[in-house]
């Protein structure tokens, strides 16, 4: 029996199998066909899911009239080509992060999806975790007060990528979380990075996002760190919050700590800092697999014709920051104003620039 939506998946390397498993678990979707250039990987999928058909030609997925949704889990340099062809063929498209290799490609994908009345969603998976949902609730409630700054670190030994640098690989997660928590976009980006193993690809980098009203966010990414770190600190005028994704439970801690300014002072000499050290609260988080929540949301948006939280516009915001960070690195940390139009790059040029 046909499910409500038949799915074709392009790419079953490290991440694609997670999409296949979760689409098959959802009541409304069924994976019909999987494409990959690697026959061993395809055979493995066939062993696990004997009913799916496999192919080395991605066009067989895009051209299949039975397929309603195309999910793309291939290297970023291929995202635009596969997604634009799938949208042109009338398929709803789910793309793994980052949406594509340049802001120009992102704008073209959005236009194509909108012109054809199709859903386009990017896999900013962390926004579908219970930890990030809870953090958003806490920030929006005002419990932390006015947000001063966010500091995010995503460090590990590897996994080295051959086609993109560490920012394009790791920072989409941090950037999507930061934009979600603050609910706005930065005005200026600066970044620095260096390449130690492959001289053409930065493996250590740091991006600074300057928002209006003196709010700042720092993102540090590394494939060259002895320790696996996935930690974000959100500092507010009243409280501070730490999100440690490495923890199996108790991922979020809210510290009742702050620096209190005196309400009135006539001169700086009268200014005395007062430090508040209060309790630490650990909010309870719901369970559930974020990929399942994410794909369920996508299918619901297709069914109800509503806009995904991480739609093409959301994906484009992250790509625009990645692109600006890349330009800043190549220009020795120059501040890039996001209002400045980025030079138009093709996928190939963007890949080389990375
Ligand atoms: N959401 C997340 O947390 C998360 C985690 C990891 C990776 N990702 C994203 O998933 C995507 C894939 O990453 P990965 O780590 O699985 O990479 P990978 O290299 O392990 O897998 C990519 C697969 O795509 C296949 N492929 C490449 N070109 C193809 C083509 N022309 N036709 C068909 N298949 C082709 C390769 O053979 C490979 O099997 C990337 O965009 C990455 O950023 C997302």
Topology:
Layout (H helix, E strand, L loop, with lengths): L4 E6 L5 H10 L3 E7 L3 H10 L4 E3 L2 H6 L5 E4 L3 H13 L3 E5 L6 H13 L4 E4 L6 H12 L5 E11 L8 H17 L5 E7 L9 E7 L5 E7 L1 E13 L3 E5 L7 E9 L13 E8 L8 H15 L7 H19 L5 E2 L9 H7 L1
Bound molecules: nicotinamide-adenine-dinucleotide (NAD).
Fold and architecture overview:
This protein is an alpha/beta fold and 354 residues long. The chain has two domains: 5-125 and 290-310, Rossmann fold, CATH 3.40.50; 127-288 and 322-337, 2-Layer Sandwich (Dihydrodipicolinate Reductase, domain 2). It contains ten helices and 15 strands. Strands 14-13-12-11-7-10-9-8-15 form a nine-stranded mixed sheet. It has a six-stranded parallel sheet with strand order 3-2-1-4-5-6, with helices on both faces. Helix 4 (76-88) runs parallel beside helix 5 (103-115) and helix 5 (103-115) runs antiparallel to helix 9. The longest helix has 19 residues, at 312-330. Nicotinamide-adenine-dinucleotide binds at residues 10-16, 35-38, 41, 58, 73-76, 78, 96-97, 123, 125.
């Amino acid at each position: 029996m046909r499910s409500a939506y038949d799915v074709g998946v392009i790419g079953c390397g490290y991440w694609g199998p997670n999409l296949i498993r979760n689409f098959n678990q959802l009541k409304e979707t069924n994976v019909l066909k999987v494409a990959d250039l690697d026959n061993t990987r395809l055979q493995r999928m066939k062993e696990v899911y004997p009913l799916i058909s496999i192919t080395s030609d991605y066009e067989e997925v895009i051209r299949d009239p039975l397929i309603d949704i195309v999910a793309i889990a291939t290297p970023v340099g291929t995202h635009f080509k596969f997604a634009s062809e799938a949208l042109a063929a009338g398929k709803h498209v789910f793309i793994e992060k980052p949406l594509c290799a340049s802001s120009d490609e992102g704008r073209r994908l959005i236009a194509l999806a909108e012109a054809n009345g199709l859903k386009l969603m990017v896999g900013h998976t962390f926004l579908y975790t219970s930890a990030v949902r809870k953090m958003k609730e806490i920030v929006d409630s005002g419990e932390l007060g006015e947000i001063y700054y966010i500091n995010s670190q995503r460090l590990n030994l590897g996994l080295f990528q051959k086609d993109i640098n560490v920012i394009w690989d790791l920072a989409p997660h941090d950037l999507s979380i930061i934009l979600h928590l603050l609910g706005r976009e930065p005005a200026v980006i600066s970044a620095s990075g260096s390449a130690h193993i492959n001289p053409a690809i930065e493996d250590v980098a740091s991006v600074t996002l300057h928002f209006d009203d003196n709010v700042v966010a720092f993102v540090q990414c590394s494939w060259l760190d002895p320790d696996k770190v996935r930690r974000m600190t959100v500092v507010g005028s009243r409280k501070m919050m730490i999100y440690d994704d490495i923890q199996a439970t108790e991922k979020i801690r809210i510290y009742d700590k702050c620096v209190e300014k005196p309400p009135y002072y006539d001169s700086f000499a009268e200014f005395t800092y007062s430090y508040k050290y209060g309790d630490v609260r650990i909010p309870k988080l719901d369970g559930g697999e974020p990929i399942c929540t994410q794909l369920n949301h996508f299918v619901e948006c297709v069914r109800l014709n509503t806009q995904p939280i991480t739609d093409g516009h959301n994906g484009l915001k992250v790509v625009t920051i990645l692109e600006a960070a890349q330009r800043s690195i190549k220009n020795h940390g120059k501040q890039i104003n996001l209002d400045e139009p980025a030079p138009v790059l093709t996928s190939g040029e963007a890949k080389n620039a990375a």
